[in-house]
Design a protein that fits this description.
With 195 residues, the chain is mostly helical. It has one domain. Helices cover 61% and strands 9% of the residues. It is built from 9 helices and 3 strands. It has a 3-stranded antiparallel β-sheet. Helix 2 packs antiparallel against helix 4. The longest helix is centred in the middle third of the chain and has 28 residues. The chain is elongated and about 90 Å long. The chain starts with a helix and ends in a 7-residue tail after the last helix. The model has no long low-confidence stretch (mean pLDDT 83). InterPro entries: Trp_biosyn_TM_oprn/chp (IPR019051). This is Membrane protein (TIGR02234 family). Keywords: Membrane, Transmembrane, Transmembrane helix. It comes from Microbacterium keratanolyticum.
Length: 195
């Protein structure tokens, strides 16, 4: 477990990037094809139109991947829980859409073409709604994100602490004489050399 903990930061960030990246890509891909009753051309519906929260929450996941790598232990746990909540909500919504092919998922795209609003008005115009693999691919991404959140919760306390490159060392008081260079060094460290 300690070995996994040492690589936990990188692995967690990688899982978050994979999930967020797949989410962004899937938001631009065709999730459904609508066959119209009137015989007009089939209407492709992108993931972002089928599920409007898909792209923004996928971007949030990408932001979490960067943030979780630089925060302290408490915020790691908070961000891991946020990632799991996003995974759960997107996973539930994606599963419903993938299984049911609801009219609501294609309504906005179809409304732009025919000029009618509301599912009741649009439903009679639809002969069939055919799904593509993209909702299922997105669903796998949310599973990866959930696992990344669990992994972060289990290993976050073993992650290495950030480097000390930008931390200043505390200066100790001098008992002997202080020259001009030492005075400037003390000022740089926040100590008043006149005391």
């Amino acid at each position: 477990m300690k070995e996994l903990g040492r690589r936990g930061r990188a692995l967690t960030a990688l899982l978050f990037v994979i999930a967020g990246g797949i989410g962004i890509i899937s938001s631009t891909q065709t999730w459904f094809t609508v066959v119209r009753v009137d015989g007009a051309a089939d209407v492709p519906v992108a993931g972002a139109d089928a599920m409007p929260v898909l792209a923004p929450l996928s971007l949030a996941v990408l932001a979490l991947s960067a943030a979780i790598a630089i925060v302290g232990p408490v915020m790691r746990i908070v961000f891991a829980i946020i990632a799991m909540l996003i995974a759960g909500s997107l996973g539930t919504a994606t599963l419903v859409i993938a299984l049911e092919h609801p009219v609501s998922a294609v309504a906005s795209t179809l409304s732009e073409l025919v000029g009618l609003m509301g599912e009741e008005a649009l439903a009679p115009m639809i002969a069939s709604i055919t799904g593509t693999p993209w909702p299922w691919i997105a669903l796998v991404a949310w599973g990866v994100l959930f696992l990344g959140g669990i992994f972060a919760l289990l290993t976050a306390r073993h992650w290495k602490v950030g480097g000390r490159r930008f931390q200043t060392s505390s200066s100790t008081p001098h008992d002997g004489p202080i020259d001009a260079v030492e005075s400037w060094d003390d000022l740089s460290h926040g100590t008043d050399p006149t005391r």
